[in-house]
Amino acid sequence: MKLQELLPVTEVSGKVKRFKQKLMRRGIKIRYDRAAAEKDLQTKYGGKGQVVGKKFGLRKAYYATPQGGSGASKSRPQLTINKQEMDQLHSNGKIQKGNVDIIYKDE
After folding, report:
1. Element (H, E) at 67
2. In the Cβ-directed half-sphere of 37, how many Cα atoms lie within 13 Å?
3. Are strands 94-97 and 100-103 parallel, antiparallel or unpaired?
4. For an engineered disulfide with 31, which of 4, 27, 36, 74 has Cβ 3.0 to 4.6 Å away?
5. What does pTM read for this prediction?
6. Are 79 and 103 spatial neighbours (Cβ–Cβ below 8 Å)?
7. Spatial separation of the C-alpha atoms in residues 55 and 38, rounded to whole Å
């Protein structure tokens, strides 16, 4: 007897269950109607984002996601220094760039 014969038709794989839980943890509601997902997009994200369709088991589900690029604000700030500043940093152990002090430790 195969495993698929034992599981009911509505049962989905563990991978799909984990993905659904991940969406729900982020506060994203899964809809089986595209119009309802578009309504969620308007109310929750002000129309800025997209409605994504994905097949969960035997049914296609839709969910609204916010506009991409919001993760860019979570990235770490970068500081660029040139060769002259790098030499000064190695010789003095400290330079000031803008309102940031850059300290070099040889450890």
Report:
1. none
2. 20
3. antiparallel
4. 36
5. 0.52
6. no
7. 17
Listed as own residue / partner, the contacts of 17-25 with beta carbons closer than 8 Å and 24 or more positions apart are 20/56, 23/63
What are the structure tokens assigned to 65, written together? Answer: 């996601």
Tokens in use for 45?
Answer: 């994200």
45 phi and psi angles, rounded to 5 deg: -115, 10
Q: Are 38 and 64 in contact (CB under 8 A)?
A: yes
Angle at 69 between CA 27 and CA 73, to 5 degrees: 90
CA dihedral 48, 66, 50, 38 (to 10 degrees): -80
Give the Cβ contact number of residue 85 at 10 Å.
Answer: 13
Specify the DSSP class assigned to residue 59: E
Residue 64 in tokens? 């609204």
- Distance, in Å, from the CA atom of 79 to the CA atom of 100, rounded to the nearest integer, reads 9
pLDDT of residue 37: 92
* Amino acid, res. 104: Y
For 45-99, the pLDDT digits (tens) are 888 889 999 988 888 999 998 876 545 555 667 788 899 988 988 888 888 888 8
